[in-house]
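Long-time lurker, finally posting.

We've been working with Thioredoxin domain-containing protein ([Kitasatospora] papulosa) and I want a structural starting point before designing mutants. I don't trust myself to interpret raw outputs, so I'm hoping someone here can both generate the structure tokens and explain anything notable. Sequence follows.
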Amino acid sequence: MVNRLADAMSPYLLQHADNPVDWWQWSPEAFEEARRRNVPVLLSVGYASCHWCHVMAHESFEDPSVADYLNAHFVPVKVDREERPDVDAVYMEAVQAATGQGGWPMTVFLTAEAEPFYFGTYFPPESRHGMPSFQQVLEGVAAAWTDRREEVAEVAGRIVRDLAGRSLAAAEGGLPGEPELAQALLRLTRDYDERHGGFGGAPKFPPSMVIEFLLRHHARTGAEGALQMAADSCAAMARGGIYDQLGGGFARYSVDREWVVPHFEKMLYDNALLCRVYAHLWRATGSDLARRVALETADFMVRELRTAEGGFASALDADSEDAQGRHVEGAFYVWTPAQLREVLGEDDAAFAAEYFGVTEEGTFEEGSSVLRLVPTGEAEPADDERIAGVRARLLAARELRPRPERDDKVVAAWNGLAIAALAETGAYFDRPDLVERATEAADLLVRVHMGDVARLCRTSKDGRAGDNSGVLEDYGDVAEGFLALASVTGEGAWLEFAGFLLDIVLQHFTGEKGQLFDTADDAEQLIRRPQDPTDNATPAGWTAAAGALLSYAAHTGSEAHRAAAEGALGVVGALGPKAPRFIGWGLAVAEALLDGPREVAVAGPVAGELHRTALLGRAPGAVVAVGEGSDAGSEFPLLVDRPLAGGAPTAYVCRHFVCDAPTTDAGELAAKLGG
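Top reply, 14 upvotes:
Generated this for you. Predicted structure of Thioredoxin domain-containing protein:
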């Protein structure tokens, strides 16, 4: 067996480096080998913090007899979906089209031309619940390949033709307007879980991008129902087990609709998006809960995900060792009453058990409970000092447990989301350290991920750039982060870097009719060019780029970028009224478009009162430029010809090519921006 994963950058691939399976990385050489041996390719896609990926690896890929059969009859290829979202997207679309569902681990059988013909996700070691065993699947596919090759080729060809016919044009329905956004809000109201917050049933995912839309819609229209759904959902999540009540930060999703038991992996992207959501909720309402959660989530990211090079790691695993030395899900986070007594003593343990919902029966497995804030039916306990002391002692005790593994690769897109969240949270709450952490992550992206040619690479690890090209979401989210950082710091270089990236979006990711593609026109050609406008766990590349293009156009007056943003938003007009839960960021960007967005120029000091007031304005998608002196306009076009009024710091607000009278009064500026 040849170990081809030993030099991989991906922690997920390295987890499989010692398997008896003769793994290849995704490469032309792997498919050439399949052609030479006249065997199919087994494509296995997952990621480092995926619980069921670990399970299938342990059950099947570590089994020598399974590995021997696999090596003899297939060319096995292992892909980290976070490194190659393009490969993942293309074959996940095929899996979902064929089976009606998808997920990870993803298992796909391909011809040597990379055409898929059989699909699945997790396969157990023995057949159960109507699922064949992995060995049975391997034997069945190998037999079909040998005995029914024409049928296999016909199936593969049909799937590829079907995928090719799914390409989206740009906006046929035109720009999303007031009717489409009102219909989206109505649909969300129907899907809303009034009892538990959030949308839909179990499993329940944090709807961060939908909440951004709701906050912006309320800011623009005054719709109280939109704000109520946002605030109540955020409160329910923050009180639930999906939120780490000791260390801050959010788990990936809740397995139940009440937010009690999470799937324990913690992803950078969820925490970046939710940190920003809670900061924006505080901006809208002044909620103490929103302030606390925004800061705790920011501190979690810095404390547990920040790398030595200043970037942010992808994820913490769901699994870790329990007291018996078993590698199980949630072991780091859950508690039993006995464990509380061991750390806190009888009295404080009883108090903590009631406060955090820890019972003898447990809310999770084997009598353990996930900490959450239990509704009391009356006012919260007022003993804040006791609660803080209990939290601190439990957190210190938890730090002695074996920690979940960390996926240390730095993903450009997700770091862009973190930069935006930390920059804004730091600015709102007078935490310059958070702004500094955002700046350091941005420096890493410029230095390592952009290199000398301003083309992004997708990942890095230990300060070394990976081999995979950035996809559209990388360009959109990193530009978004740079634009937020420019507004907070007053450093125009970040606006310039955003412009470099967005020019590449216009040149290499935009089709003839204005539609966007997830990969560049000079990227590796797969069986189809992936193109997904829907927001799922993160903003789609399509909507992320639209938002950044719109903001950059507001900063610079560029018609090309404004037109590209408007062209991209047509898909929101089509999908928003029908499926608003899956295009939340697109709807948020559409709110900014309807509002202008407003352009705010502050001629005066960074971190001055007018600058802070501008940043706290709630007008959807407003952009802020700040700088002192006559040369400030060279970095920020909005500051050109913006003199100080009577020598005092002065703010200018423009919208739809019309500018208000300049003001030196923070209260007047706040009123202009919905503050």
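Before you design anything, note these points.
The chain has a mean pLDDT of 92.
The first helix runs from residue 11 to 15.
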